[in-house]
Amino acid sequence: MRRCIELGKKGLGSATPNPMVGCVVVCGDRIIGEGFTSPYGGPHAEVNAIRSVKDEQLLKKSSLYVTLEPCSHFGKTPPCSDLIIASGIPKIFIGLQDPHDKVAGNGIQKLKDAGCEVTVGILDKECRDHHKRFLTYQEQKRPYIILKWAETQDGFIAPTIEKRKGNPQPFWITNGYSKQLVHKWRSEEQGILVGTQTVMDDNPKLTVRNWEGKSPVRVVLDRDLKTPQEFHVLDGDEQTIVLTAVAETKKYRDGIAYEIIDFGQPLAAQISAVLYRHQITSVIIEGGAQTLQTFIYENLWDEARVFKGTIIFGDGILAPEISESPTKTESILADTLSLYYND
């Protein structure tokens, strides 16, 4: 099952909104097939694992290990449980039952009804952590939420207007290696969210450039639609959702999705509901300070990844405050990365 989890991680960022499942086929004490979930719309992990077995006759005396219950319904692909049954694999070991309402034990029951010996709950804690994005989306009806920011040695997230010299572009606090890591993270999550002030100050692209992978869906808070038409987030190069209070569709730009929210009410829960409707299973929130603090205040976050650079501003916008102690810290050259988990 640990090998299944290791394999499943290969689908991080590409399998969504499907879960990143890992699967191995074992005959005796030897792995004879393995697979993970293909990019969305492609074969699931069980299919890839079974197809990778060179001698199909071995399947009838093999065991299959999989991190999540095999599906029992037709979606983009046929049910994995049907393929397992047809292949004649007699023993199935499953990490977790799938909470999806179209599965939810049906796959397990189908396997049992076909005469398979099924064991559920193998390394269930590790499998829950592995499938945290999918499980949060299914069980809590919201995306898995990651907060990310960089702050200076003296606790500022952004400089004063004078330091920017009127030029709307990112003001880097961390080194190039930390920047590359952030782009890797972007490739792993389905959405990326920023507030209006961050867009106005930085004119960010919010894409993956220093790493291979698909860029996340851009989500922009813009109550009054103040973002200039020529700014990167409205260029149409990536799927973009704008959360606004403006209902006049004549102010909307073609190719951009607009969602109305009530800026007079708590925002984090509303944002989470919109992202859930758009089937975004995970989101990384990159600023600004007010937007990040909103999610902290409403206690709607799962992880926080906080960089501390070496530079000092002396003045500027204060970084968000988080009451928990970091679970882990590590160094990226002179930068410090602190990781928090909201358990």
TrEMBL record:
Sorted keywords for this record are: Hydrolase, Metal-binding, Multifunctional enzyme, NADP, Oxidoreductase, Riboflavin biosynthesis, Zinc
Q: What InterPro entries does the record tag this protein with?
A: APOBEC/CMP_deaminase_Zn-bd (IPR016192), CMP_dCMP_dom (IPR002125), Cytidine_deaminase-like (IPR016193), DHFR-like_dom_sf (IPR024072), Eubact_RibD (IPR004794), RibDG_C (IPR002734), Riboflavin_Biosynth_HTPR (IPR050765)
Coiled coil residues, start to end: none
Hydrolase as UniProt keyword: yes
Under the GO molecular function aspect, what terms does this record hold? 5-amino-6-(5-phosphoribosylamino)uracil reductase activity; diaminohydroxyphosphoribosylaminopyrimidine deaminase activity; zinc ion binding
Q: List the active-site residues.
A: E46
Q: What pathway, per the record?
A: Cofactor biosynthesis; riboflavin biosynthesis; 5-amino-6-(D-ribitylamino)uracil from GTP: step 2/4; Cofactor biosynthesis; riboflavin biosynthesis; 5-amino-6-(D-ribitylamino)uracil from GTP: step 3/4
**What GO biological process term is on the record, naming one?**
riboflavin biosynthetic process
Question: Which of this chain's residues are annotated to bind NADP(+)?
Answer: A150, W172, T198, D202
What catalytic reaction does the record list?
2,5-diamino-6-hydroxy-4-(5-phosphoribosylamino)-pyrimidine + H2O + H(+) = 5-amino-6-(5-phospho-D-ribosylamino)uracil + NH4(+); 5-amino-6-(5-phospho-D-ribitylamino)uracil + NADP(+) = 5-amino-6-(5-phospho-D-ribosylamino)uracil + NADPH + H(+)
Q: How is the cofactor bound?
A: Binds 1 zinc ion.
Q: What is its EC number?
A: 3.5.4.26, 1.1.1.193
What PROSITE patterns does the database record attribute to this sequence?
Answer: CYT_DCMP_DEAMINASES_1 (PS00903), CYT_DCMP_DEAMINASES_2 (PS51747)
Superkingdom of this protein's organism: Bacteria
Give a yes or no for keyword Metal-binding in this entry: yes
Q: State where Zn(2+) binds.
A: H44, C71, C80
Please tell me where substrate binds in this chain.
Answer: R186, L206, R209, E286
Q: Which residues form the CMP/dCMP-type deaminase domain?
A: 1-111
Cofactor(s) needed for function? Zn(2+)
Role played? Converts 2,5-diamino-6-(ribosylamino)-4(3h)-pyrimidinone 5'-phosphate into 5-amino-6-(ribosylamino)-2,4(1h,3h)-pyrimidinedione 5'-phosphate.
Regarding protein family, the annotation reads:
In the C-terminal section; belongs to the HTP reductase family. In the N-terminal section; belongs to the cytidine and deoxycytidylate deaminase family.
Question: What is the protein's given name?
Answer: Riboflavin biosynthesis protein RibD
Which source organism does the UniProt entry give? Flagellimonas flava
